[in-house]
Design goal:
By secondary structure, the chain is mainly β. It is built from seven helices and 50 strands. This is PCDGA protein.
Length: about 700
């Protein structure tokens, strides 16, 4: 099998394991896939539609999308299949230079449901890098007096691949004076050393050339080489010695470029050329080489470019000090970058609605936000908040995701638009803040009925008006918006004098103007009571009613009419048979008789009869009153003297009294018996008895005398 075939087979096996791992993770409520690096754009990563139970129509409508942090989007969603595919060719070594496990994270946003799912994709390494030495030719100087068994550190080879594809072994070839030893470093890395196995003799050989070979564990293996040239020098007694075996320095990430971070020093007791010490970087990563600079004469390490705690927390350098005779010493420098609150919180709107119905229930999601701060510790702790007084609240969703939901029901008639400001502040001192504004428009729901400007309407209309005359205009307003606020007017059903109300008046549906459809006659219709209904355009429609009173004003449009005698028809007048304004009375007519027909005569007789009956009733009533009064007077006289009459005016025989004098009385009678008067006149009395008779003559009884 060819090398290309073997590589293809390994990629397919890695892809299969990645799919199996994704299925297992989905069963536990997580989404985790793996994919080999360097796959072409559009390569399959995982079946999201199947693993999450998503419907393909929702994917095709654009309601589901993939988002990830950073400027480059490495994955996308295939709308037709629901597969997660690569959006770019992925280089694991570029993304995860010093990380053993390279994992890229992204999120799946479901727009309609405002849900977010976390996705982790592990980038599997392929053996696409060869071990390389920073310098292809290594120059070493050794004194001929160097004792066999001495060790000299060699530069490390670098292979950015991981696992078995990374650097695995070193080999040395070319000379019997030297051998190779490999030491394990603190981090598990391999450090090659050149071991002197046989004494050197400058006169025998002034130079020795060796080949150092570095190999990885790939299949097939990749190999890189470096040429080592050893120059043999005269005797050198002392080697340089660093003041510290290891240097540690902590620097803030905002230190200015060009600043000296640390200075290493080494001393050599020799004099002259053998006492001159030079410094060089023996082991350094490519990133550190672009970040720091070593002054070979002074040992000062300065900053070449700005530090960023979020990109690199620590750096490890190995510096070598060597003299002119080829002797050297090495030291390690650990540079730790401390975090500074130099990153403001970042608010990303992953999904948001621009419109929401006013009848949406409390808890409706309107936006999905992602908030992060690239700082660490308290500087990276973010607190999110909303402005007070808005009907929304924040809810934690997934890791650094927040949902903006409604806190209560909305009312478009009070607030039709919201600009919701989301604020994020970190825990630094002083804290850094950022904000994002969500523009939200509230959609109308038909929840308001039309309201008339007046509780009732009334108008006055003169009779004999023209048909189509404007009577009045009713107006109603609706607090809703759009079609829901469109008001139309109509008359409620009714009847006037047996005819439909709509035959008398009409209302214009758009304006509420009330018109008279006919000319009114005060003598027939004096007022109209009607109801006008205002109805909006909602579904279902809401309506309200108002009472309208229309008063017809009288005008002097009728001449006096002669009720009797009735006018004769025109034909009768022309023939002379009708009434001509003159009537003839017979000679036998009594005084006071009317020149009227039989009808008028009977009418007069009826009135006279009623009048006579009324007069007879009055006379009867008066007679009854007089009789009662007379009886009361007689009863009063029998019980004692008449009131106002002296006792001397009475005479009595055997208990019977009689008047001695006659009286004349004035009696005044009225129709009201309570106001009748009886008045005695003192000057009109006279004796009613004759002169006292002689004793021998008998006295006459009362009433036996002459009535005259």
């Amino acid at each position: 099998m060819s090398a290309a075939g073997r590589r293809w087979g390994r990629r397919q096996r890695a892809l299969l394991w990645g799919v199996l791992l994704a299925v297992w993770e989905a069963a536990w409520g997580q989404l985790r896939y793996s994919v080999p690096e360097e796959m072409p754009k559009g390569s399959f990563v995982g079946d999201l539609a199947k693993d999450l139970g998503l419907q393909l129509p929702a994917l095709q409508d654009g309601g589901v999308r993939i988002v990830s942090e950073g400027r480059t989007q490495y994955f996308t969603l295939h709308e037709k299949t629901g597969h997660l595919v690569t959006a770019e060719r992925i280089d694991r070594e570029q993304l995860c230079e010093s990380v053993q496990q390279c994992v890229l994270r992204c999120e799946l946003i479901v727009e309609g449901e405002m849900k977010v799912y976390g996705i982790q994709v592990e980038i599997m390494d392929v053996n696409d890098n060869t071990p390389t030495f920073r310098e292809a030719k290594i120059e070493l100087r050794m004194s001929e007096a160097t004792a066999p068994g001495s060790r000299f550190p060699l530069p490390n080879a670098h292979d950015p691949d991981s696992g078995r594809n990374s650097l695995q072994s070193y080999e040395l070839s070319g000379d019997e004076h030297f051998s190779l030893a490999v030491q394990a470093g603190p981090g598990g890395d391999q450090r090659p050393e050149l071991v002197l196995t046989k004494a050197l003799d400058r006169e025998e050989a002034a130079f020795h050339e060796l080949v150092l070979r570095a190999s990885d564990g790939g299949d097939p293996a990749r190999t890189g080489t470096a040429l080592i040239r050893v120059t043999v020098l005269d005797a050198n007694d002392n080697a340089p010695v660093f003041s510290q075996a290891e240097y540690t320095v902590r620097v803030p990430e905002d230190v200015p470029v060009g600043s000296i971070l640390i200075t290493v020093t080494a001393s050599d007791d020799d004099e002259g050329l053998y006492g001159q010490v030079k410094y060089s970087l023996n082991k350094i990563t490519e990133k550190a080489l672009q970040t720091f600079r070593l002054d070979g004469d002074t040992g000062a390490i300065s900053l070449l470019q700005s530090l960023d705690f979020e990109d690199g927390v620590s750096y490890e350098l190995e510096v070598q000090a060597h003299d002119g005779g080829g002797l050297f010493d090495t030291t390690k420098i650990e540079i730790t970058v401390t975090d500074v609150n130099d990153n403001v919180p970042e608010i990303s709107v992953r999904s948001a609605v621009k419109e929401i119905s006013e009848d949406s229930p409390s808890g409706t999601v309107v936006a999905l936000l992602h908030v992060r701060d690239r700082d660490s510790g308290a500087n990276g702790e973010v607190h999110c908040s909303l402005d007070e007084g808005v009907p929304f609240r924040l809810e934690k969703s997934f890791e650094d995701y927040y949902r903006v939901v409604t806190a209560r029901e909305l009312d478009r008639e009070q607030v039709s638009e919201y600009n919701v400001t989301v604020r994020a502040a970190d825990g630094g001192s002083p804290p850094l803040q950022s904000s994002a504004v969500l523009a939200l428009r509230v959609l109308d729901v038909n929840d308001n009925a039309p309201v008339f400007a007046q509780e009732r309407y009334s108008a006055r209309l003169a009779e004999n008006n023209a048909a189509g005359a404007l009577v009045l205009t009713v107006r109603a307003s609706d607090a809703d918006w759009g079609q829901n606020a469109r008001v139309r007017y109509r008359l409620s059903e009714g009847r006037v004098r047996g005819a439909p109300l709509s035959s008398y008046v009409s209302v214009r549906a758009e304006t509420g103007a009330l018109y008279a459809l006919r000319s009114f006659d005060y003598e027939q219709v004096r007022e109209l009571e009607l109801w006008v209904r205002a109805e909006d355009g909602g579904a279902p429609a809401l309506s309200s009613n108002v009472s309208v009173r229309l008063l017809i004003v009288d005008e002097n449009d009728n001449a006096p009419q002669v009720l009797y005698p009735p006018p004769a028809p025109a034909a009768s007048l022309s023939s002379g048979a009708g009434w001509s304004g003159v009537e003839l009375a017979p000679r036998s007519s009594e005084p006071g008789a009317l020149p009227a027909g039989s009808l008028t005569r009977w009418l007069v007789l009826a009135v006279a009869a009623v009048s006579c009956l009324f007069l007879a009733f009055l006379l009867l009533l008066l007679a009854l009153r007089l009789r009662r009064w007379r009886r009361e007077q007689l009863l009063a006289a029998s019980s004692g003297a008449l009131r106002g009459v002296p006792v001397s005016h009475f005479v009595g025989i055997d208990g019977v009294r009689a008047f001695l004098q006659s009286y004349s009385h004035e009696v005044t009678l009225t129709a009201d018996s309570r106001k009748s008067q009886l008045r005695f006149s003192g000057a009109s009395c006279c004796d009613t008895l004759p002169a006292r008779p002689l004793p021998d003559e008998p006295a006459p009884l009362l009433g036996d005398g002459n009535p005259a």
